[in-house]
Amino acid sequence: MSQKELKEAFVSNLNGTSLGEVSLGSVLAPLCLMSRGLVLVLYYLGKGVLPFTWKVHLLMDFTFLILPLVLSCTILSDFLQVVILSLAAINTSLLFSVYYRKKHSSSVHSRDVFKNFLQINLETNRIPFVSLFRVLVNVKTAISILAVDFSVFPRRYAKAETYGTGVMDFGVGAYIFANALVCPEARRKEVYVSKISYVAKQLLSVWPLALLGMARLISLKVTGYHEHVTEYGVHWNFFFTLAVVRVVATVILALFPVNRSWFCALIIGGLYQTTLEMTELKSFIIHNSDRMGGFLSANKEGVFSVIGYIAIYLAGVQVGLYVMQARTLVKDWIKAVCNLLLGSFGLFAFLYVCQTFIEPVSRRMANLSFCVWTVAQSLFFLSCFGIADIVLVFSKSLANCTLISSSWNPIKNAKSETLSAEKIRDKMEGFCLIQAVNRNQLLFFLLANIFTGFTNAVVDTVSCNNFHSVCVLLCYMFMNCFIIFILHLKKITAKFW
Hints:
By secondary structure, the chain is mostly helical. The chain is built from 22 helices and 2 strands.
C-alpha cells in the first residue's frame, strides 16, 4: 500500500466507542477549568496579587486546559476514569481550602454562606459557560483532526464508518450546535429590514466558509492528501456543510417562529428518517459504491447529511433562546443548568428508543438517532460547564475575587468597581487563552486544518511511536494557541465579512 492508501485505511472501517465513554470524556474539560480557576483563587488569597505576565498566563492555561485534553485522548485514554476521579478529588480539596479559609476569617454560619450565595447577582451582559462550550468544542476538534492520524489515538475515538458513536462523530455535530447557540436568532437580535433582505445578507455572510471549502478541496486534489471519501464524499467537506446549514436554517427561521425551532428540528429529523426507511435513500448512501454517477453520487454523504445537521442547528437555536433569557440571581442559573441536564437525560432516553426501534447512530447519514445523540450529548457537555462556572462563582464570592477570567463575576452590592479593579480584570481577560480562541474561533479552526496538513506532510504519523506522537501533538497545539494568543494580545479580530 502507498502512504496515502495506508493513512486512508487507518481511519476507515471503524465502529466508535460507547455512549458512556463519550459522556465521561465530556466531564474532563470542565474539571480542568475548575482546577485552573480554583488555583488562581487560592493564589489570590495567599498572595493578593494577580495577574501574572502574559507568558505565565499562556503557559498556565496551556498546562491546565490543553495538556490534559491531549493526554486524555492519547497515552491516558485507557485510564480516563482514574484521571477524572483524580481531578474531581483535587478540585474538591481546593474548594474546601477556599471555603475553610473564609470560615476561619468570618463568623458567618455555613447555612448563611450558602443562602447568601443563592441570592448573589451575576453579570447579565455575558454567559461564560456558553463561550466555554464553544471554545472547548473547537479546541477538542483541533486536537482530534491531527491526533486521529497517529496510532496513539484510540481507533474507537475516531469517526465511525457507518454506525457508531466515536468521539469525533460527536465533535462534528457539536460544532454545528455550538454555532447555533449564539446565532442572531438565538440572541434575539432585532431585524430592522425585511426578511428577504435579512436572508440575502446571511447568504452573503457565508462566503468565507464557501471560499475555505473550495480552498480545501483544491489543496487536497493538488497535493494528493489522503481522504476518507465515505466521510463527506469526493468533493464535499465540512466547510460546505457549515455554509449550507447556516443559509437553509436562516430561511427556515425567517419563515417560522424562532421560538418553535425545536418543532422544526423534530419535523425535519423525523421526515428525513422516514425517507431513509421508506425509500432507497439509505441503501444509496451506504451500499452504493458508484461515485461516477454525477455530483450527487460522488458526494451523497455530504449532501444528505446536511439535512440532519440542519435539524441539529435548529435544536441549538432553541437551546440558545432558553440560555440567553435574562437571569440575574445564582439560584436562577442553577435552575437553568438543572433544566439543561434534565433535557439531556430526557433525550438520552429518547435515543435509547430510537436505537432500539429504528436504527443506531450514524454520522455518515446524520440520521435521527445521530441528531438526538448530538443534542443530548451537547446539553450534557454544556451543563457540565454551567456547573463548573457556578462552582467558580461560589469560590470567587468566598474569596472576594473577581479576577478569574472567562467566568461569571458575583455582584454583591450596587457599588461599582473601582477603575483600577476594572483595569486589572480587563488585563486578566487579555491574558486568557480561552478569550483568545473565542475572539478568532474560525481562524483557530482554519489554522488547525493548515497545521494538520503540514504535519502529515513532514511526519510519518502512522509509524510514529507514542512518545513522539504526543510531543508532535503538543507542539502543534502550542503553535495554534500561541498564534491565536498573540493576535488576542494585539486585539486583532480576523473577520472577513
